Amino acid sequence: MGEVFAGRYELIDPIGRGGAGAVWRAWDHRRRRYVAAKVLQQSDAHTLLRFVREQALRIDHPHVLAPASWAADDDKVLFTMDLIAGGSLAHVIGDYGPLPPRYVCTLLDQLLSGLATVHAEGVVHRDIKPANILMEATGTGRPHLRLSDFGISMRKGEPRLTETNYVVGTPGYFAPEQLLGAEPDFTADLYAVGLVGLYLLHGTRPDSQALVEHFLAHGTPPAPESVPEPLWQVLAGLLQPDPQARFRTATGARKALNAAVEMLPEPAAGEEPVEILDQLGPLPAGFGPEGPLARPAQDAPPVPAAPPVPAAGAPGPVPPAPAPQAYRQTYPQPAPQPYRPVPAASETGSFHLPPPVARPAPYTAANPYTAPTVPAPTPARTVPVRRPGPPPKVAVPVLLLALVSLAVGFWALTRV
User: Fold this and answer.
1) What is the rounded distance in angstroms from the CA atom of residue 274 to the CA atom of residue 105?
2) Could you write out the DSSP letters of every residue in 12-42?
3) 313 dihedral zone (left: phi>0; alpha: psi -120 to 50; beta)
4) Is residue 77 within a helix (H) or strand (E), and if so which, with residue range?
């Protein structure tokens, strides 16, 4: 079985790895369910502070995957969240390539919905990219995404943890103002959402630098191939290099997206449906859908199998022949004596011995025709009771010696 962390979370198998730590599939013994556990890999002050910020984030939204609980054990810390089995948007693109425009609009609408709630809490995500957008395993049904990984997110007004001239995030999804050292803002997250939209429509990561240069030199470019014009107008509003020219809020971008969906053409007949499958794989040995399987008793003795019952009229099993015994010469043994309780030990640890018991003489085989002789009982006699004290032969000399010592002592006193 896996390692049990803080007496509650049993780590089963790793399912992902990030810059700050590994993500494990774990079993929560308290809540009796599988969860995703992010274990902190580094222990420097900045990483630990980011961990504290991330685990403190509590946002309840169907399209946001925020931490649910946390625990610490010795030099390790972890926090848990819901276990999402469908992989990320990167897995979806790897399986299907470019996605249909209406399907992309559904994903972007859910992403903007969750991001609006995050921004309403005053939090800037700062790392929106396909690998941080997870998918529920919904099969061919309506997709359901979850925005995850708030490891470098921060609330507006909080102190930054990066040094001067350093930028945190994923290359290729930076907003232009981030590269210039601007303070994190909500509009930087919206710029990353526009890049994610292009990624889903083209199946490859867009060239952010080329887009910025084209916008600055020629203004808004025409719609790329395979991108419907109504949808491109929304994406262009997210990708403006000037933050003041972008959508200011996720809610505003979502309204424009919903209006654009109504002008999109209907899906083509026979279009292949996008199926979101389970990407986690089977559980390891020893675990089932309801948690860890029962451990077999290690020291339990094997239960012997019952002998088969013979059918009616069939001969029974032949008992095994007794094992040959070694020859031993036997001698007559004394008759067994009745049970006599042993007296309890005294306070000093000694034992009182019971009086001897008269035993009859054993029968001898010298003359088998002569009955054994039984001795006559000894007549009872009175035994004088002896008083305690030393015998006279010892007491008289000791008494005389005491009298002499007393006389000498008295004589010595009179001479002084």
Assistant:
1) 14
2) EEEEEE-SSEEEEEEEETTTTEEEEEEEE--
3) left
4) strand 76-82
Reading the chain (416 residues) residue by residue, the pLDDT tens digits are 578 988 899 999 999 876 667 899 999 999 999 999 988 765 655 566 666 665 567 788 999 998 888 888 777 888 899 999 999 999 999 999 999 999 999 999 999 999 999 999 899 999 999 999 999 999 999 999 999 988 788 888 766 655 544 455 667 788 999 888 888 899 999 999 999 999 999 999 998 889 999 999 888 999 988 899 999 999 999 999 999 999 999 999 999 999 999 999 888 777 889 999 999 989 999 999 999 998 665 544 455 555 555 555 555 555 555 554 544 444 455 555 554 444 444 443 333 444 545 554 444 444 444 445 555 555 555 445 455 566 667 677 777 778 888 888 778 787 76
Measured in degrees and rounded to the nearest 5, phi and psi for residue 382 equal -85, 125
Give the list of residues 6+ apart from residue 219 with CB closer than 8 angstroms, or none: none
Q: Among 134, 407, 96, which residue's Cα sits nearest to residue 278?
A: 134
Q: Retrieve residue 162's tokens.
A: 């990066």
Beta strands in 125-251 (DSSP E): 133-135, 145-147, 154-155
E-state strands within 104-252:
123-124, 133-135, 145-147, 154-155
Quote the CA–CA distance of 287 and 283 in Å, as a whole number.
Answer: 6
Asked whether 47 and 168 are in contact (CB, 8 A), the reply is: no
Is 127 annotated in the active site? Answer: yes
Angstrom distances, CA of residue 111 to CA of 23, 106, 117, 243, 348? 22, 9, 10, 20, 87
Task: Quote the CA–CA distance of 171 and 368 in Å, as a whole number.
Answer: 115
Which of helix, strand or coil describes residue 136?
coil
Spot the catalytic one: 127, 149, 185, 189.
127
Handedness of CA 150, 155, 156, 159 (dihedral sign): negative
Q: Kindly state the DSSP code that residue 219 receives in the 8-state scheme.
A: S
**Cα four-point dihedral sign 227, 231, 235, 240:** positive
Are the C-beta atoms of residues 257 and 234 closer than 8 Å to each other?
A: yes
CA–CA separation, 38 vs 57, rounded Å?
14
Q: Which domains does the chain have, with CATH numbers?
A: 1-83 (3.30.200.20), 84-286 (1.10.510.10)
